[in-house]
Amino acid sequence: MEFYKILVPVIGTDADEEAMKLACRLAKKNKAKIWAVYVIAVKRALPLDAEIESEIRTAEGILDHIEAVAEEQDCEVDTDLLQAREVAPSIVDEAVEREVDLILMGVTYERRFGQFSLGNVVPYVLKNAPCRVILYHQPTA
Amino acid sequence: MYIIVVGGGKVGYYLTKALLDEGHEVLLVEKNVTICKNTVDEMGSVCFRGDGCEASTLAEVGAGRADMLIAVTGDDEDNLVACQVAKHKFNVPRTISRIRNPKNETIFKKLGIDVTVSSTNIILEHIEEELPTHSVTRLLDIRDKGMEIVEVKILPESTTVGKAVRELSLPEESSLCLLLRKQEKPIIPKADTILQSEDRIIAITPLESEEVLRATLTST
Questions:
Q1: Minimal CA–CA distance to A32: which of A93, A75, A64?
Q2: What are the pLDDT digits (tens) for B186-209?
Q3: pLDDT for A73-126, tens place per residue?
């Protein structure tokens, strides 16, 4: 499997960091391009282009950190901050628009109502992604 | 423009689609999970699952910044409640409600709904327009001014045929705006314009004078 364009959606977890390191390793072989995206989910009560300062600050912090992680791996990464009503469709849209070969997502083990849950984003991306998807699971300490 | 459509039936579905095509920000509010899922699958994140009659739902979908709310569920009562909550709690500038029972039109207006759309009345108006027995067709209600624009057809047996406009005793505040005659350009009626059989007159009149106007123009 060879990848030339890789999309790494991030939300600021430890798994994102490891996912980015993995993306860098996969990218090195073919000098693939990597995009790290953070999606701010904007509530309906606000217009889509509303500037939510606190969210933007958090997102920029996460993207700066992920950029630094990539630099440590001698890898160049482009970062993108998106605003959307829902996170999952915007990740898929971004993948379509950038014609990526791979979406690489870090996931954490989460329980909802006492059962393991992948949440809403991962299942949607798995179902609708136009390319391969790799989920990186961070082992619990 | 941010438009909230309440009710994801056929009307709501096609309305949402058309409004999205026109470039508006549209959100469909629908209770049924399957309808909501199908809409999202087809049109993206434009459907919110919830009851559009509930203030909490409308708050969540951002009714406070909506420019318009259109309630098109199959129940007149639900449409009324959705529009009223939007109007009075969230100050939505314009509310439009679909009504199935034409009798509800007056009460909806009294309760502050800006526009009501009655499919029954629309069909009836089209029938009136097509049937020669109906000489007056209502074209537009200007309810807040108490006026309406009507089209009156001059029947061959009418006593007004051959009379000049000045000879007609039109009701107060009514005026004839346009005269449409077969194979002629539209004419703006003047005092000396002679009415002919089959002429169609566009007139503006107070609501309460419609009957008098009809009687004046079409008496036999």
A1: A75
A2: 889 988 889 888 888 999 999 888
A3: 888 899 999 999 999 999 999 999 999 999 999 988 878 888 888 888 999 999
> How many folded domains does chain A comprise?
1
Assign domain B130-218 one CATH number from 3.10.450.50, 3.30.565.10, 3.30.70.1450, 3.40.50.300: 3.30.70.1450
Residue B91 sits at φ, ψ, to 5 deg, of 55, 40
CB contact under 8 A, A85 and B60: no
Return the number of CB contacts < 8 Å for A and B. Answer: 24
**pLDDT band at residue B133 under the 50/70/90 scheme:** low
Return the residue in A42, A44, A93, A127 with the most chain B beta carbons within 10 A, the one to mutate for interface testing: A44
Could you tell me where the beta strands, DSSP code E, fall in A51-128? 77-84, 102-107, 110-112, 115-117
- Whether residue B62 and residue A85 make contact (CB cut-off 8 A), yes or no, is no
pTM of the model: 0.71
